[in-house]
Automatic annotation (TrEMBL):
Reactions this protein catalyses: (8S)-3',8-cyclo-7,8-dihydroguanosine 5'-triphosphate = cyclic pyranopterin phosphate + diphosphate
Protein name per Swiss-Prot or TrEMBL: Probable cyclic pyranopterin monophosphate synthase
The species this protein was found in: Natronorubrum aibiense
Superkingdom field: Archaea
Compositionally biased spans, kind Basic and acidic residues: 1-17
Amino acid sequence: MSDESEGRADELTHTTDEGDVQMVDVGDKPDSKRRAVAAGEIQLQSSTIDAIRDDGVGKGDVLATARVGAIQAVKHTWETIPMCHQIPITNVDTEFSLADDRIELEVTVETTGKTGCEMEALEGVTTGLNVVWDMVKAVEKDDDGQYPDTGIENVRVLTKEKQRS
């Protein structure tokens, strides 16, 4: 089931027959309650994870700052993804899970409107993880200023739901 098009699954909805990009017209679609959950993870050194757990990172509370960044990104997705519609965000939830060598972030976005919110959830995940990286980069880089143990990966949409109003 596609939120953007009732046509074929291989049809590009953001491209005209002439090959020009376009925003999909959702004006005639009914409003629906929508929910999307996305996740991703950042690999870090175990000593960095310990510092985050102990609130020992010099820049401040890493997860609180990343949560704010994720929520801000959700609200501003339409400004950074060219063909995304500006949608009314009704709820954002962020959940961090810390392991020995990584942090997973799951972002849930809810809206009531004419188009889905999976791009907003993905933007929340990637920005939240980028904020973590920014907060810990001083302790993650090696003697050459590189980040051999740091990486953002496995960013994906976990679920996408729509309920007709």
